[in-house]
Write the structure tokens for this entry.
Amino acid sequence: MKVNKAKNPEKFICPRCGGLIPSNEEWGKYVGALSRHTRSRGVPPVEVCSACGTEEAIEQHLGELTAIDEYPIINDATIARRFGAIAIMEQRREFLDPPAVND
């Protein structure tokens, strides 16, 4: 099944971890975080989930900010958010395209 983008715009999926924006618990209720990579004038903004925004802030502070071309990030935390997002979308079937009906 594909996510129905008319009911679930791509902007609600975090490009960094695959979780939901702003979080799996608050999906689509408010904006997420602005990626630290896209805060310069003239650079198109990229919205990430709140957890990824926090992780980017820590990485930047440590001087180890993961490059945006390395998205999606694969680690235990991001995998958990991604699978949590899939479970939530499965529970909310109204956000999914209906299965094809065979004639």
User: Anything to note?
Assistant: The first strand starts at residue 33 and ends at 34.
